[in-house]
Each structure stands twice: as structure tokens, then as C-alpha cells.
Amino acid sequence: MGIASQIGYNVLHMEKKSSERAYFTLLELNTVIKSAIGDIFPEPCWVAAEIAELKCNQKGHCYLELIEKEGERAAAQIKATIWAYEYRKLGHKFEKAAGQALKAGMRVLLFVDVTFHEVYGLSLNIKDIDPAYTMGEMAKKKKEVIDRLRKEGIMELNKSLPLPLVPQRAAVISSRTAAGYGDFFQQLDNNPYGYKFSHVLFPAIMQGQEAERSLICALDEIRKKKELFDVIVIIRGGGSVIDLNCFDGYEIASHAARFPLPVITGIGHEKDDTVVDMVAHTKLKTPTAVAEFLISGLRSYEERVMDVFDRLRRRAERMLKDERHKFDSLTRSASYIPLRISAVHMNRLSVIHSDLESRASRRLVREEHRTAAIEQAIKHLDPANVLKRGYSITRHKGKVLRSAASLKKWAVIETKLLNGEITSIVQDRKEAVKSEQGKTDILLPGLE
Amino acid sequence: MSKGKQISYSRALSELEKIIGEIESEETDLDLLSEKVKRAAQLIKYCRTRLRSTEDEVKKALSEIGEEAESAGTSEEESNGY
């Protein structure tokens, strides 16, 4: 009643009710409240709060639940609205400046009209939003997360894992519909070296309120089968303005940092790195860059293998060449040995050799002459040739006669002439004088 | 190398490097050399082939996981444009 009189309200009903008790109707009450609030907040004012909930309806109106927490408990809470007309303008402006859309969990500085509607009650009608405040708050929050990770000593944990020698099996956390995911596996599968990768998608929500929980779920899923993978790849399609806040949360960063496999990120952004990027083993700008990175891992392994191959081939070739040389020089030196041992002797030998040669040739000439002479002699010695010249051969009982001494009177002798033979009977014989025997018996050419 | 009993990439590489080390440093005789070269060639071929093929068993296991993960993730994925 006091308030009512203070605000000068004419409270008729309070005097006339049968119950004898003064009261407002609800409308009266709410009208009083509305009027009072209008008096207290004649102009809009700035208020800092956290968005607990945000929903847009089909008409494009945006309804928020603002909250101020003390720890995890709500210390203050109020509804807020951005009318469709304002939201189209404000939402766009905010997103452009802050790099992300308004969403739950975000701390905001709002320019509001405090309004009271008789039916809908107290609400803040949002006229403007200061993105700089939100950005500052986010940076502060991010710094707190980083500080906490540092304090826990896990900031560098994933980086300390050795990169797999051959990152051929990748567990991919992304969204199937993400352009970046398509870029990633196309790049990977169409690599110019013909390498084959095993990459399995573990789908996750990559933006918004549910993203962090969804990312953690995907990590847990992969952890169960970690021996089937060499690396984890977290990728997201690049876009104009995208919300990266989910990669700055403590929970997801902590999970990524502690993961037993190297985490490679390609979240696709140009601004500051997210906390997940910071704890990741390897941070790359785009999904395509991640694919290139994996391909280069296989390439580098193959190069090491091929280096061994080249060295092996060179070595084997050299060894074979060496062996061949060794063999060649061995056979060569083997033939040199007598020469080396006795160059003098060899000299002499060569003299002898040439001497021998000349002698031999002389001898040969001589022998040739001799052969010719002998041939001649033989020719001459042929009985036929002897007969030709008028000599004859006389035999007695098949034996060639050289002396008349053994013949008796009436002995039958046969004489062979060049042409034909004759048989004669010995009538007389004379023995030649001994000294003359040789002359008659030995017929040599040239004696004629 | 039989399926499922493949030697790891790191073992293949270290064996290769051991072989080349021996061949480069020691006096390897020709008979042993050809044996080692043969083994190295086999390893090199194995590595290069493996880089260009996915192991059937792993592939199968992976695709199963993929399906599981997919069926678990489809509902969540619908609203997700990124």
C-alpha cells in the first residue's frame, strides 16, 4: 500500500472489497510495476552477463536467458529478447566483429531496455551488443585454460610423442558434410605417389554448444582402438566466419593433449590458434595441408628406403667392379710374373728365341732342300725309274741277284725289264773282282 | 612376407640400414654380398608395396569402426554444417 501511495496510484479497490482487505488486481499490480520500472530505467543501460540459453523462433525473434554465476550456481538470472528486426542487424555485426555468433556460454555486454510486460513479465530488450567485451572475455577465458594446462604440465604432452615413421592410418575427426573433410581425403587418396592411406571418419559436431562434448566422444571412441591408427587428424572446413570457441575449452584441450597418438589439426582458420591447436602435436592451417603432411611422411620413409637402395646398388656395383679389377689385374700380374722375376733372362730368352727362330728358318730352308733332295733321290731310287733308264733286275728263286757266285750252270733266272720279264738259263758265269763289286751292286743316281 | 605377420616399417628400415652399414663398412665377400643384396631388395620391394596397399585386416577392422562410428554419429551430424 505504501508503494502504491508513493507512486501516486489511485487505489480504488483497496477500500471497497468485501473481505475488508485492500488488494490489487494482478493487472493493477503489473501496471504499477511496469510504471515503476519505466521510471527507474527511463533510458537503456549497459549490462554484463553470460548467455545461459539462446533460441530463435521462426519469426526471427531471439530469446535469451541471461545469467550471472557465482561458481556454478546462478546468482542472478533474467530473460532477454532481441527482436527480429534488431537481431538481423545486431547478430551480423557481432559475428563479423567477434568472429563468432552469439551463443550460450558466451559473456556479453548488452545495451538493454529494462521492460516489464503485464503478461510476459520482466525482460531485457537488447538494443546493442559490444563485441569487444566478448572478445576480451574469451581471450581471458582462453588464457585461463592455457594457464591451467601449463600448470598441469600437459601443454607439451602430445608434442612429446614421436611422429609415426609411416603415418598411413589416420583416425579423422570431422563432419562428413564439411568441405574440408572432402578436400582432405581427396588430397590423400589422389596423392601422386600412389600411396594408400587408411582413414576412418569419426564424425563429430564441429561448432556450437555441443561441439566440445561431441569432440571428446570421438576422441574416446578412437582411444578404444588406438592400436589401429598412427595419427589423429582433427579437421574442419574453412569458411568465412566460423566459430572456433569449442576448440578453446579446457576439456577438449586436455583430452587432446593427453591422447596417446599424435594429434594433427587442420581447423582452417587464419586468426589466433585455438587451444587445441596449441596442444596438438602438429598444427596446420587447412585440411589439405594435413593431407600433404601425411603424404610427405610416407614420401620421406620411401626416400630413406630408396636411399638404402641407391647406396646398396652403388656399393654392389663398386664391389663387383673392384672384384673384376682385382681379377683382371691378378690374371695380368700372373702373366707378368716370369718377366718380372727375370727380366734379364727374358731378354736373353728373347734373343735365344729370335736366334732360334732364324736358325729354325735356316734349318727349315735346309731341310726343305734336303727333303727335296731326298724326294729326288727316292724318286730316282724307285725301281721303275731305274728300269726306265735301262737297268734291269734279275732274281733267282725270287731273290734279287747281286753276285754271280751263287749261281750254277743251268740255273733258271728271271729278269725284270721296264716292259715285261724274261726267263733265261745260265750257261756261263764269271765272278767279279772284289774291289769292283760295289760299283756293280750299288746303283746311285749321278753315277751315270 | 605372409599376411598378418608383416614386419613393421621401422623393423624393415632398421634391417635395411643394418645391411647397408655392413656392406659399406666390412669386407663382404661376393657370395655374402649377393645374399644381402637379395634380402635388401626383398625388403625394399616389401616397403614400397606396403606403402601402396592397405592391409586387408586393418582395412576391414577400420571399416567396421567407421560404420559403428557413423551410426553413432549420424543423429548428431545432421545440424552440423561445418
Largest interface between protein chains, with number of residues from each side: A-B, 48 and 43 residues
Order of helices and strands of chain A: HHHEEEHEEHEHEHEHEHEHHHEEEEH
Number of strands of chain A: 14
CA radius of gyration of chain A is 64 Å
Number of helices of chain B: 3
Work out the helicity level of chain B. over 70%
Beta-strand fraction estimate of chain B: under 5%
In one word, what is the shape of chain B? elongated
Q: Order of SSEs of chain B, N→C?
A: HHH
Rg of chain B, Å, rounded: 21 Å
Concise account of the structure shown:
With 448 residues, chain A is α/β, with parallel strands linked by helices. Chain A contains 13 helices and 14 strands.
Structure, described:
The complex is a heterodimer of chains A (448) and B (82). By secondary structure, chain A is an alpha/beta fold. Chain A contains 13 helices and 14 strands. In chain A, strands 1-2-3-5-4 form a five-stranded mixed barrel. Chain A has a five-stranded parallel β-sheet with strand order 7-6-8-9-10. Chain A is rod-shaped, with a radius of gyration of 64 Å. In chain A, 25% of the residues are buried. By secondary structure, chain B is mainly alpha-helical. Helices cover 74% and strands 0% of the residues of chain B. Chain B has three helices and no strands. The model of chain B is unreliable at 72-82 (pLDDT under 50). Classes of the chains: A alpha/beta (448), B mainly alpha (82). Chains A and B meet through strand 7, helix 7 and helix 10 of A and helix 1, helix 2 and helix 3 of B.
Compile the SSE list and pairings.
The complex is a heterodimer of chains A (448) and B (82).
Chain A lengths: L1 H5 L6 H4 L9 H15 L4 E12 L5 E9 L2 E10 L1 H15 L8 E11 L3 E10 H21 L17 E6 L4 H11 L8 E6 L7 H14 L6 E5 L14 H9 L4 E4 L8 H5 L2 E3 L2 H55 L1 H39 L1 H6 L4 E4 L2 E2 L11 E5 L4 E5 L11 H5 L7
Parallel strand pairs in A: 3-5, 6-7, 6-8, 8-9, 9-10
Antiparallel strand pairs in A: 1-2, 1-4, 2-3, 4-5, 11-12, 11-13, 13-14
Helix pairs in contact in A: 4-5, 6-10, 7-8, 10-11
Chain B lengths: L8 H17 L4 H22 L4 H22 L5
